[in-house]
Each structure stands twice: as C-alpha cells, then as structure tokens.
Design goal:
The protein has 11 helices and 14 strands. It is α/β, with parallel strands linked by helices. Helix 6 packs across helix 9 and helix 9 crosses helix 11. The structure holds nicotinamide-adenine-dinucleotide.
Length: 368
C-alpha cells in the first residue's frame, strides 16, 4: 500500500477562499493529507488557520522560510507544497519551495507577470521537479469528455469556439478580502478580470479543443470608475488551424455567478457545456439531433466518484486535479493536470491582451 502524500500549504489563512477548497480537494481521495502550512503573512493568523485545519500546532508556521526549513529537516516532512496565496506571491512561494527541493502545485495564474512566469519556467527546468497548475475547469468530467470526443474526431475539423466566463461580483467598487487584492496591480499583477477568470476560459478553450490560439484581437475595459485593472474583456480568437473564436470574460455582468460556458463547432457536430450545470453536455449533430451526455455514464467513470445522477461539482473537479498530481508524484501515467507550458501560455495571453488592448494594436500573435 502506498503512503499518503503529505501536503504543505502557502496561503489559505482565516477567511481565504481557495485554500480550504484545496484542502478538501487534496484530501477527498485519501491520497493526500494537509499536515503543514504557512497560511498567512501574519504569524498569529497562520496559527489560527492551523487550528481551523486541525493540524499539529507546531506545523502551522509563521512564514514560508520557517516552514520549508523545518519540514525539510523532519523525517515525516511534507512531500510537496501547494501555493494558494494571491498572484504576486506565486513566484516567491514557488521559488522558495523549489529551492528547498519540494514539488509545487499552484493556483493560477502562474505568476503576476509574464517575466515572472519565464523566471519560474527556467527555475522549474533547473530543478526538474514536478509542477502543476490548478486550472479548475479542466478537472470536470464533462470537460475531459469533451476533450476526448474532439480528439477522437467526433466533431470533425474544429471551425468555431465560443468560450465565456461571466461574473457580476465586482460590479461595484471592490470591498472585502477577496476583492481588494484582485483590483490592485501590485498584488493581482498586470491583469484584472483577464488574469482572474479570462485565463481560465483561455485554458479551457485550448484544453477542450486540443488547439492553440495563434492570434487575438482584445478589447479590455476598466468599467467601474476608478478601477485601474480591466474588469471586462471581449476578445476575438484565431486558432492555429484557422478556426475562429470568441472569448468573453467579465466581472461586471450584474447577477452572473460563475458562468463558465464553452461551445465548440466542427464540420460534423457541435458541443456545449456550462459549469453551473456541470454534469450535462450537449452534442449537436448535422441532422438536427441533440444528444444529452451525462456524467457518471461509462465514458466518464474515471473522473466521477458516485453513480450517475448524484451531482458532483467544483470540489470533485478540483479533486481530479489533485488525483492527477498524486499520479505525477508517484510516477504513474494518465495525468491531465496542466503544468508550466500551460502556465506560460496563460501568462502570454494575459500580457499580450493587456498590452494590445491598451495600444489598440488590433490582431496580435501569441508567441510563447
Ligand atoms: N482555480 C480557481 O478556481 C481559483 C478560485 C479562486 C482563487 N484562485 C487563485 O487562488 C489564489 C488565492 O485566491 P483567494 O481568493 O483564495 O484569495 P484570499 O485573499 O481569499 O486568500 C489568500 C490567502 O493568502 C494568504 N497570504 C498572503 N500573503 C501570504 C504570504 N506571504 N505567506 C502566506 N500566506 C499569504 C492570505 O493571508 C490569505 O489567507 C489567487 O492566485 C487566485 O487567482 C483560483
């Protein structure tokens, strides 16, 4: 029997959003256990988070350096580090972990800027340690099913992709812990909405179609008065095979929650999937028939945990990414977890879109 992998967390302090999600997702399959953390830049808050997660109080550390040094010295020290702090901290956190010899799984975007992403990619090459990036939507059973069907040629040649991520929670001047760093360039990085959710849509489009975006025509706006970073993005896409696409991402679409939707059309069939109804995908045929595909049926068994019809969602999709990371760490095949190449592509997308929109450059190439 293989041992459970031990996880150390950076970020995920009191009131944080995604840290607790990572904890649940990592532990869902009993492959991984959270045992240590530098959960906050404030020592008392890190310790309070340690209580919340019910880990050994001695392993809730005052800062990242203390955690890495102590865990390295323990015979039962952590096997890898999860980075779930805000964007500006992704590079320093990952760098410190890699230098201490630990594999890293990080939340997106890879870093705050493209230069930082290049630095991290170079560090990863030197370190030759596993690195995973949690583009959540690639963990959903039906997103994986869409990818498999497109790869098998069921849609024929892909000609059109429409991908969207719509939210409304930043429709007003930002308030609260999650909002305040996301609208601050010093902590969010060069992208606002595009770095927070546009990059999810970008990755989903490339993941599902298996195609790369070659060129973009971006129109980014900071709609809420006084906001520096973009909060609304409309982007035309051209894929490497000539397919056309549209990517819409917004945080000012009042009333929208997490409207991630993708539609892909080939010359034989089309498909559509949305994450607020994640267990259903529609496959549309030339003769007018629409097939309803459901998660939990034999094709998707590998990425669901309960019999079909029992709804699974965000947490299980996240857990699929952790299950993949466990496979990578154990040297087993079959992982679909995004990594440094996807991270660099995402950062190139953000950087190119922000610059080209500001200078009204028109169509620009995505060169990674
Ligand atoms: N994949 C997804 O679906 C998804 C969803 C939400 C957020 N995210 C990403 O996760 C990251 C965190 O987002 P969030 O909404 O949880 O933010 P948050 O503000 O809720 O939490 C961030 C946490 O990091 C801690 N932190 C900050 N600096 C630190 C440091 N120097 N050392 C240790 N901890 C530190 C903060 O104290 C806080 O507890 C962001 O990069 C965001 O883009 C991804």
């Amino acid at each position: 029997m293989s041992m459970r992998l031990r996880m150390g967390m950076i970020g995920g302090g009191p009131g944080a959003f995604i840290g607790p999600v990572h904890r649940i997702a990592a532990e869902l399959d009993r492959e991984i256990e959270l045992v240590a953390g530098a959960f906050s830049s404030d020592a008392a808050r890190s310790s309070a988070a340690g209580d919340f997660y019910r880990i050994d109080p001695a392993r809730a550390y005052p800062d990242v350096a203390a955690m890495l040094a102590a865990e390295k010295a323990r015979p039962d020290g952590v096997d890898f580090i999860a980075v779930v702090s805000p964007n500006h901290h992704h590079l320093p956190a990952a760098r410190a972990a890699l230098e201490a010899g630990f594999p890293v799984i990080s939340d997106k975007p890879m870093t705050a800027t493209l230069d930082e992403a290049r630095e991290l990619a170079a560090l990863l090459q030197q370190a030759a340690l596993p690195y995973g990036l949690t583009y959540t939507y690639s963990g959903y059973p039906m997103a994986r099913e869409a990818r498999a069907r497109i790869a098998a040629g069921e849609l024929g040649t892909i000609r059109k992709v429409v991908v969207e991520y719509s939210q409304g929670w930043l429709s007003q001047p930002a308030e609260g812990k999650q909002a305040e760093w996301r609208v601050d360039p010093a902590r969010a990085g060069m992208g606002g909405c595009i770095g927070d959710i546009g990059v999810h849509a970008f990755h989903l489009a490339e993941f599902v179609t298996g195609l790369r975006v070659a060129q973009i025509l971006p129109d980014l706006a900071a709609v809420v008065p006084g906001r520096v970073l973009d909060d609304d993005c409309s982007i035309l896409l051209r894929f490497e095979n000539g397919a056309r696409g549209v990517l819409l991402a917004s945080q000012i679409e009042v009333g929208e929650l997490n409207g991630v939707r993708i539609r892909v059309y080939g010359d034989k069939a089309g498909l559509s999937w949305q994450q607020e109804e994640p267990n259903t995908m529609l496959l549309k045929h030339l003769d007018g028939r629409t097939e309803v595909l459901r998660a939990g049926t034999p094709q998707t068994r590998a990425s669901v945990r309960t019999p079909g019809g029992h709804p699974e969602g965000y947490l299980e999709a996240f857990a699929n990414l952790y299950r993949d990371f466990a496979k990578v760490l154990r040297g087993e095949p079959g992982s679909l977890l995004p990594g440094a190449t996807d991270g660099l592509r995402g950062m190139t997308f953000i950087d190119t879109a922000v610059r080209a929109s500001a200078s009204q450059a028109g169509w620009v190439a995505l060169t990674v």
